Structure formats: C-alpha cells, structure tokens
Amino acid sequence: MRAVDIIAGKRDGKELSREELAFFINEYVAGTIPDYQAAAWAMAVFFRGMTPEETAALTDVMLASGSTIDLSGIPGPFVDKHSTGGVGDKTSLVLAPLAAALGLRDPMMSGRALGHTGGTLDKLDSIPGYRTNLSVEEFRAFLAKDGFAMTGQTKDVVPADRLLYALRDVTATVESIPLITASILAKKAAEGAEALVFDVKYGSGAFMKDPSEAEKLALSLTAAGTAMGKKIIALLTNMDEPLGNMVGNFLEVEESLDCLEGGGPADLMEVTLELAARMAVLGGRAENAAAGRKLCEQCLASGKPRELFLANVASQGGDPKQLLEMRGRRRSPVSAELRARPGPSGEAYITRIDAYKVGHAAVSLGVGRGRTEDTVSPTAGLQFHKKSGCPVREGDLLMTVWAASEEGLAAALPRLEEAVEYGSAPPAARTLVLKEIAPRTTPRPDQSFQPEAGNA
Ligand code: URA
Question: N or C: which end of the chain has fewer CB within 10 A?
Fold first, then answer.
C-alpha cells in the first residue's frame, strides 16, 4: 500500500477500507508517513467526508493506535462530558468535580486549544505545577481518590489523535464531522467512560456554524457512541457568543472556581447545569433532567464539588493554596482596555459579541496556537465587563485584554473591536440549549446524592 494512493482515493471520493485506514494511521503514528501527507489526507476527508462505516473504522483504528485505560477495580459509574469546542467554554472544569460529588466517576481525557477554540488541557496547565500528562497508573489512582482525573492523549493512549489533533489545528481541517467524531470517540473509548454527554456547539464560535450541521455532528457522535455500547445524550448548545465573562487559560480556571462557589455568570451556569443534569441521569442519579438539575444545584451549594476540585489540583501536582492566592492576580503585564464605541447616538445596546472573532483574537493574544510548535500563554486572555443585552454609552469599559506580546495585542484589538455589535434596542434573548438528542436510558433512582458520603 502507498500513502499517496490512499490520499488520491479519498480526494476522488472513494470509501477507504479498514485496511487502508489502519495502514495510513499506523504508519503516520510510526513516523513513516510525514505530516504533509497526513495533512493532504485530512483535507481530502474534509472535502469528501466519510461514510458511517468509514468513520467507525477510523475511530477503531485511532483507538487501536495505543492502549486503553483499564478501570477495573474502581467502582463506577463512569460518566464523562465532551464538548465539540467553543470560546470561553470551561464547563468541564466545573462538571468533573460536580459529577464526582454526585458519586459518579469522571475519567476525563480532553484536548488542547483547537483552531479558535480553547482547550481544557491548556487551561489546567495554567495552574502552576498541575500535570495533564498522567501515566495510566496515576490516572487510575486520582480517579479512585478524587472521583475524577483529567489528562490528555499520550504517546501510549490514543497517540493517533494526539498527532492528528495538533495537525488539524494548523491545517484548517478541524471542521469535519467524521474527523471530529473519530477524534472524540477514540479518546472516550480509551478513557473507559460508560456514559457520555456530548455538548455539541453551534454558532459563530463553534466548528459547526449552523444548528442543522451541529445536529448532523450530534447524530454522528450519538450513533457511533451507541454502537460502541456507550449510553449517550447530546445537547445542542449555543456558541454565538463566548460563554461566561473570561476567555483565556488561567482566567477560565478562575471563572470555574467562581462557578464552584456559586458566583458563576448566568449563561455559563445555565449550560453547565443542563449538561450536569444529563450526567446525573446517565449515571443513574436522577429520573429525568429536571430532577438531575435540582440535584446538581443542591450539590454545588454543598461546597463538595469545590473541595474535590482543589483535592484534584493537589493530586495532579498543583498547590490549591497558591491557586487561590493567585486569583485576580495572575495576569500578563501586557494589557489594554477596550471601550464602547456605539456610534453617533452615543447610547445603545450591545446586540452581539461574535464568538468566532473573539476566539480568533484570543489566539493572537496567546491563548491558542498559530503553529503546532507554539506554546500557549497561561496569563493571556480577556475579561468582558459587558455582554450582549447590556446598555452602553460611548467610552464605557467593555473588556480588559491581556496579551503574551505587544504584537499579539496589536493584532487582537481591532478584531475584538469588530466583534462587538450595537443596536438601538436590546437583542432577543438567546436560547442557550436548543435541543436534546438522546436514546432512552434506565435510571437507577435508588442512588441519591449524599454530600457527606465522599468518593473514596
Ligand atoms: N474535540 C475533540 O476532541 N476533537 C475534535 O476534533 C474536536 C473537538
């Protein structure tokens, strides 16, 4: 077999066989197929797509590129959430300890910043000392002790996704339903979760701009996940505007702590609680989403999820005391303020803050990567002081912006300015959760939340 024939086959719209996909992915992981051929193949998949059978075969091959994590001996149920990527989306950092406090176990294998979207691993890495490159033994130990553990793909576990993910990030090949499906499901199969909640984003800041495309992605993820024997619920959620008030790696860790302390912004809390409610349902803690949400609200108010988050920080190498002391202070010294310019009337409402433009600006600030070898800045990012629906007057403070470099700041400011739209009336309220896509599940109502019970 030759890589060039496989690339040409996909370019011409052929369905690739399992053997061809196995050859291509395995040789890429072994280093005998170079990045330029893998990039050409990914672009061909982007344009030509894949059949469900091809997507399933690609997922299997990516999963088989490394070992899987054996969770035997640790009591479940193992429930995880995965987002298809957004801007300011830090729900994972709240959901993992919340699920753990409900008595579920969340074996979370996440990704880094991808395209204009943020990455859970980059956020966690901004906590000094925190390690996201756990060995399988460490992952198992922290999962058993704290109820959750957060790690990335390694050279042993889903190495094919580690390489392809980084390559797609810088070759404009992220927005492909089969590539996203295989990337996510290979990680989820490797981590050992039995049940999965997918947060499938739509809108300008999502990879799928249109709700109907997002629904296709949700159906692809649900079908492929169900075929793997997982219990699945997908929610279609809005990503037209960044979630919450912070975009940036450490800034988002701070905002996650706010959520765990009851002070999270309304839009972020709404999406987080709706996702948490489904995790509770899939884990057998609630009969339905409404009951699950109530349970999650009570659980957050108990303070247990915050305690577990800080316990996990200590387990994975960080210092919880230092983390709390750094809140509000760990910022890049290169900064600027962005002020409202609503135009001639001098008074207006913010009608929209375009998540894609903000995400793109955030990459320039240093939150994400322009090239595979770039490092991200822990302290770059931005804070919104006003969001859509807020009345504004000329000169009001809209955002504080922190950059890794003066050049990055200069590139980001005009994009951020352009991201804000004004109008003479407030915009209609945004629907944050559009739709649930779920096969039926059987809850186990006998297991209810006990804040004191702990996880060990
Ligand atoms: N999240 C992933 O893990 N992979 C993708 O391709 C997109 C989002």
Answer: C
How many whole angstroms from its chain centre is CA 109?
10
pLDDT band (50, 70, 90) for residue 347: confident
Judge residue 306's burial from the number of C-beta atoms within 10 Å of its C-beta, 0-12 exposed, 13-18 middle, 19 or more buried: buried
CB 381 within 8 A of CB 247: yes
Assign residue 23 the CATH number of its domain.
Answer: 1.20.970.10
Is the pLDDT higher at 266 or at 449?
A: 266
Are the C-beta atoms of residues 157 and 67 closer than 8 Å to each other? yes
Ligand 1 atom with the smallest distance to the CA of 174 is 6
Number of domains in the chain: 3
Which of these, 60, 249, 247, lies nearest to 158 by C-alpha position? 60
294-313 tens-digit pLDDT:
999 999 999 999 999 999 99
- Check if 115 has its Cβ closer than 6 Å to any atom of ligand 1: no
Question: Tokens 């049940």 label which residue?
Answer: 195
For residue 415, the enclosing domain spans 334-423
Instruction: Give yes or no: 345 in active site.
Output: no
Catalytic residue status for 161: yes
Contact 115, 207 (CB under 8 A): yes
Residue 112 sits in the same domain as residue 239: yes
Spatial distance between the Cα atoms of 6 and 8, rounded to a whole number of angstroms: 5
- Hey, which of 184, 185, 201, 237 would you mutate to test ligand 1's pocket, going by the most ligand atoms within 8 Å of its Cβ? 184
Would the CA dihedral through 41, 47, 48, 50 be positive or negative?
A: positive
Shared-domain flag, residues 228 and 291: yes
Does an H or E element contain 233, and which?
strand 231-238
Residue 161's closest CA among 146, 142, 181? 181
Res. 453: pLDDT tops 60: no
- Check pLDDT > 80 for residue 332: yes
Task: Check if 275 has its Cβ closer than 6 Å to any atom of ligand 1.
Answer: no
Q: Is the CB of 180 under 6 A from ligand 1?
A: yes
